[in-house]
Amino acid sequence: MNTDVEFHIRQNYPWNKLPANVKQSVGNSQREYEKHVQLYSIRNQLRFRNNLVRHVRKDERKYYEELLKYSRDHLMLYPYHLSDIMVKGLRITPFSYYISIMEVL
């Protein structure tokens, strides 16, 4: 992913406020930019609220499930900064998360 694209995603720039050179780097495709937003948010385990991904994905629960799946597949640490959502909303504790990783190995 282009560093300019990542910068604008990090700064929560919607598609209509992107500079022309950044739009061109994603092929002038809003759908492609939304894919980059989603991938960047999941890779960096960003919170759904206060993030650009809330405009791309409408279902918060599915976003967090996908985030957990990506984290498990890439053997990442449990997202403790999201534990309020993971434990209360998805009912996934750090223990159950690590057990699920160990089951795969």
Automatic annotation (TrEMBL):
<dbReference type="InterPro" id="IPR028091">
    <property type="entry name" value="FAM91_N_dom"/>
</dbReference>
<dbReference type="GO" id="GO:0005802">
    <property type="term" value="C:trans-Golgi network"/>
</dbReference>
<feature type="domain" description="FAM91 N-terminal">
    <location>
        <begin position="8"/>
        <end position="104"/>
    </location>
</feature>
<dbReference type="GO" id="GO:0006886">
    <property type="term" value="P:intracellular protein transport"/>
</dbReference>
<dbReference type="GO" id="GO:0031410">
    <property type="term" value="C:cytoplasmic vesicle"/>
</dbReference>
<dbReference type="Pfam" id="PF14647">
    <property type="entry name" value="FAM91_N"/>
</dbReference>
<dbReference type="InterPro" id="IPR039199">
    <property type="entry name" value="FAM91"/>
</dbReference>
<dbReference type="GO" id="GO:0099041">
    <property type="term" value="P:vesicle tethering to Golgi"/>
</dbReference>
<protein>
    <recommendedName>
        <fullName>FAM91 N-terminal domain-containing protein</fullName>
    </recommendedName>
</protein>
